[in-house]
User: Which sequence fits this backbone?
């Protein structure tokens, strides 16, 4: 889960990392009031979860409160790179003496957090890494030690930072690590971290990504966890799926897929393409899915009007085939009562734990069954191309 | 022979009284696995499927000589369960649990450094040496076991995709020495490379199947090892070649260009290219793995 | 530094460890008011830093507020095992179903904290360890892991605790470990930890010892660190010494000693005894002592009226002999102006770093010098027995 | 030969710009010690006594090939300094600093487990191999060095008491192979037993002096090692036989019955008895160590 800049900066401030004075606004009037409090001039930043906001016109300098309100008026409700800006952050303009880059990223290969720093801030770090690899420095943090001061010193020395700022940088990085650990962040990035004209470090931008697996213990970050999801880049259907423990990504094809396991789900998509079809989605119902989750998954797939056929591919290990079969039948019953989409054909391929009971349930419901994945995929492609949409 | 588990394996089930733990304990016992103990704090003295339950791991190990642990504990407690097993110096720990927070796994992996303990997983289906022992959740329904003893070693980052491919091998008469899933999470205990090295050393394994997926660089590292150190043939399948870039495909392992780097090493095409260049045979779809393996070995092997 | 029971319990409560309802009183009136608030009956406990308070009459049950006031009147200002009771803790009487023992102690040999538990609480743990070693269980806590729940489960199982209380015990122990780490405690002991009649865990007593070396970062525990020390078992002179970084313990002999290094200080005492004298104190001026510390040390030694001669034994390594010599001369000058104790003879043995300069300073001040420790000790014993006290 | 330090030792001084660091750097250089680098964060590029100062340890090691670090950093930062040196895999780390909080040392000692790094101290005078190198704070004033090259190894928990005894040895013509203080704190990096084992193996050491004190059980463990594994003669002195029980005698190491146990193992008498029973010679007062050693070796040795 990605946090907005303003949310990230709230966490930063609470952890003792300096951020510019400012506040979030949902209306032009609020933006005007904030700019007034800041003394007139302000930077108005659209809160959308995408990089390159500046280039896309999402960051605008306003000379006075009226201009701030006008900018907010223009940004609020607009879309930046296809994402709607529902809020703007109104901040005091910073006097920048130097722009740096710092980030903490979970490095999966090493199994530790990598501290990445660069003396080149405010630009795309990936470009810097490509064009000037000597200007990007990576230190892996021993989780037993945490981000102790000597890592900070090493980073400061590598960046060539003025030695008067070393202990400030070491403290800032230690706080950033504490924040990452406290909030289960897989990424915390400050780009740019600036040295102000007064010689202080300040986080001019802030990006925090929270580990989805840890959201159960990060409910303060996610007051909306039990209600409707907002503030993320995902669609409503995707968010609804995630709340049920289902991974769903809508794609552009016509063959809906319901699979258990991400690898098998991807392989199922690969096979559909291989036999000439186009998958309408990626969907992994997760391990040990019970029938309510199966029913929700089917409803989500069928809510996509482009879906002409559904291929269910279940190889039961921790997932039990009888639970899956009951879920399918339940969902179809429910859909039959509430929607016209009952007519979309469903091809089911079901093997593994308790598959005999599962197949018996499916037979009773008169659903077409396939033995192998390739056979199932071919059946689905035929049904999709042969019509079947009533 | 096989690798990691065989008839000397004595299994402890952590979380044995839970829904998954008890269900799969029954399944493993049916397969013939020597399950010698279970652990659930506060439930010591009970039995599950005839297996004695203990309150803590170190007591269970002391009383039963368990040498392998399998963990079915829910995600929020799973890291603690791994640490408890590692603290008790159980040499092989297999963690089935999905959804363990990544910071928990950072802590776990650091703890394992330098300890004579191997972790498989988490978020994996476990290990099976067909005909000898199963320490995992792979389907082995009696009378229609998808596995068969033989000489193909199989290692995978995936769960159910593994079953798909194992089944295809078995259908073609190709038995397996050992099949294991190393897990799909960003941080796991045992890598492709470590597993390939074990298969290369195992006289009972004649050829290896490697099942990868998008995200990370594990397949590229495996490719380097195959090129430099393997003499046995490897057939590889990488899932996700039709996945759209930049979107998460399910579990955390399946992210294009994961790890925040600037490169495209997470893309399926790059992985496939690296494996092909290293001399591995590339399957285009799951069932083709078995077809290629049959072609390579020249006959049903096992 | 040992904390009083009431101080320890304040830390416990803040860390989520249940303690009996109660408060500390410095007057009988306060004790009466607390007992009233508690509903009448109360336990009044003298706050003195010694074990065996109960046997010594320092813990009294009062049936009503008036009795609580009377007990407080009696305890306040009395001495328990030679220590004055300046405060009493007035607590609700507990309904005890079971008494347990738990403690966290730094185990120097293992280099870790040992969790010690016993099903026998409320009695002397050392007796239990001697008479029923099977009832005392020790678990060493891996500092990388901290006191994770499985240690608590292991402890609970070892104690034979009802399994309904296991997770409570595991939480309590985890909190106790957090407390010990947060406050640099080398000992945290709950004896007894009770199971109340309602089946809850509660710390009926509390003992916490703070690492003296960590007091610099534990100033919240020690508001008196810069003012006069109270609330400890040590004398005023000992406390004053400690504030200066000097280790001083008054003994019963007549030969005052000032030495650098604890080992050499003890060996100096051993040699004094060996040649027939009695040391008046142990005093280690610490490593790298500068002249003000030396002067304070000498003043402290001479403040003991039993001292008939002072033996200074300095073997300079990190301590520089010239600094020591200047400190001695300064202190003597100061004492000569302010006290009649200038007449106590001083034998100085000074070797090591910068000893030539040091000996020159001493010669100028006309102080008797010894070459070896034995020689110095013999000179001191002779001076002490031959008089020299004017 | 000697143990731990010799003419191949290349020293890094952590805290070189501080009062103690710069003073003892000069002293060590005068003695002939090869000091190749200093570290003080933020002062990289300066020099102290002609020694280059670096900002951090790993850079200093990379630039200079330092293989030993000596730490003069104040107590509140000293644990971090040890960890930084250990993280940089400096094989020998000597921490002079006194007064490091015990919880800091718990953390440090755990970090050192399994790392190819040895810590001496903290709260110790360091190590000297007379005539070769000094990595410590022991007095070595030119023209009247208390040390002398020879064949007596010396290990001590104390600082200044060590100097006292070394001086007596030298006065009697008994030179030393290596003298080291292991430190007086409750938690230290290297024990008596580990040091005795090194002296036992060192062909240049013919006899050993052990200087203990009240508190803890280190002398009893040393006694067991002397009994079981040492063939070289050992003369022992234990300070504190006149110390009143139950009171702290100065630094944290000197506590009767320390560690909270019920036993009296911390008492000097028990330690002396254990050492005597193990076959060590017992000195009643410091100067007697040299007298006994002279008697044992039969002549000035070295």
Assistant:
């Amino acid at each position: 889960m990605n946090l907005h800049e303003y949310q990230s900066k709230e966490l930063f401030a609470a952890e003792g990392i300096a951020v510019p004075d400012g506040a979030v606004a949902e209306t032009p009037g609020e933006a005007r009031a904030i700019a007034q409090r800041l003394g007139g001039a302000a930077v108005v930043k659209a809160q959308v979860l995408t990089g390159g906001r500046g280039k896309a016109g999402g960051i605008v300098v306003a000379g006075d409160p009226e201009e701030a309100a006008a900018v907010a008026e223009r940004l609020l409700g607009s879309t930046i790179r296809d994402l709607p800006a529902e809020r703007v952050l109104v901040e005091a303009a910073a006097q920048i003496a130097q722009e740096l880059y710092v980030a903490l990223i979970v490095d999966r290969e090493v199994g530790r957090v990598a501290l990445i720093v660069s003396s080149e801030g405010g630009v795309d770090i990936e470009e810097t890494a490509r064009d000037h690899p000597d200007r990007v420095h990576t230190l892996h943090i021993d989780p037993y030690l945490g981000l102790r001061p000597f890592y900070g010193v090493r980073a400061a020395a590598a960046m060539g930072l003025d030695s008067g700022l070393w202990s400030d940088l070491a403290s800032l990085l230690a706080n950033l690590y504490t924040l990452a650990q406290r909030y289960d962040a897989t990424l915390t990035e400050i780009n740019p971290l600036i040295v102000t004209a007064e010689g202080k470090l300040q986080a001019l931008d802030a990006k925090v990504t929270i580990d989805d697996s840890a959201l159960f213990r990060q409910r303060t970050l996610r007051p909306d966890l039990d209600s409707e999801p907002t503030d993320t880049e995902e669609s409503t259907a995707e968010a609804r799926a995630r709340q049920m423990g289902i991974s769903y990504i809508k794609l552009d094809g016509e063959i809906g897929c319901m699979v258990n396991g991400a690898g098998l789900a991807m392989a199922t998509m690969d096979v559909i393409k291989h036999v000439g079809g186009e998958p309408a989605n990626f969907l992994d119902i997760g391990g040990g899915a019970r029938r309510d989750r199966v029913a929700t998954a089917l409803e989500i797939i069928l809510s996509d009007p482009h879906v002409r056929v559904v291929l269910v591919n279940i190889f039961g290990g921790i997932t039990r085939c009888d639970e899956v079969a009951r879920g399918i039948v339940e969902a179809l019953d429910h859909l039959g009562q509430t929607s016209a989409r009952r007519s979309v054909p469903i091809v089911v391929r079901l093997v593994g734990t308790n598959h005999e009971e599962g197949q018996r349930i499916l037979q009773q419901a008169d659903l077409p069954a396939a033995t192998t994945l390739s056979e199932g995929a071919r059946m689905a492609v035929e049904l999709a191309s042969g019509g079947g949409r009533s | 022979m096989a690798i990691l588990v065989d008839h000397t394996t004595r299994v402890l089930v952590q979380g044995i009284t839970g829904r998954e733990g008890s269900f799969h304990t029954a399944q493993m016992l049916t397969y013939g696995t020597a399950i010698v103990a279970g652990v659930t704090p506060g439930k010591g003295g009970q039995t599950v499927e005839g297996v004695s339950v203990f309150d803590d791991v170190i007591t269970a190990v002391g009383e039963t000589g368990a040498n392998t642990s399998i963990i079915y504990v829910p995600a929020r407690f799973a890291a603690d369960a791994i640490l408890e097993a590692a603290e008790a110096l159980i040499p092989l720990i297999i963690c089935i649990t999905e959804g363990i927070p990544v910071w928990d796994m950072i802590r776990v992996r650091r703890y394992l450094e330098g300890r004579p303990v191997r972790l498989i997983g988490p978020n994996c289906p476990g290990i099976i040496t067909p005909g000898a022992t199963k320490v995992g959740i792979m389907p082995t329904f009696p009378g229609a076991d998808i596995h068969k003893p033989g000489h193909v070693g199989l290692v995978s980052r995936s769960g159910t995709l593994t079953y798909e491919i194992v089944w295809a091998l078995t259908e073609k008469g190709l038995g397996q020495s050992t099949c294991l899933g190393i897990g799909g999470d960003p941080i796991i205990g045992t890598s492709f490379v470590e597993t390939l090295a074990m298969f290369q050393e195992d006289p009972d394994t004649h050829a290896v199947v490697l099942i990868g997926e998008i995200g990370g660089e594990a397949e590229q590292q495996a490719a380097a090892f195959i090129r430099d150190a393997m003499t046995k043939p490897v057939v590889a399948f990488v899932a996700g070649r039709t996945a759209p870039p930049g979107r998460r495909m399910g579990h955390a392992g399946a992210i294009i260009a994961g790890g925040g780097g600037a490169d495209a090493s997470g893309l399926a095409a790059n992985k496939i290219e690296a494996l092909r260049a290293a001399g591995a045979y590339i399957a285009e779809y799951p069932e083709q793995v078995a077809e290629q393996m049959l072609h390579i070995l020249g006959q049903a092997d096992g």
Residues 22-92 of chain C form a domain with the Dna Ligase; domain 1 fold (CATH 3.30.1490.20). Chain C touches chain B through 14 residues (CB under 8 Å). Residues 321-338 of chain C form the longest helix (18 residues).
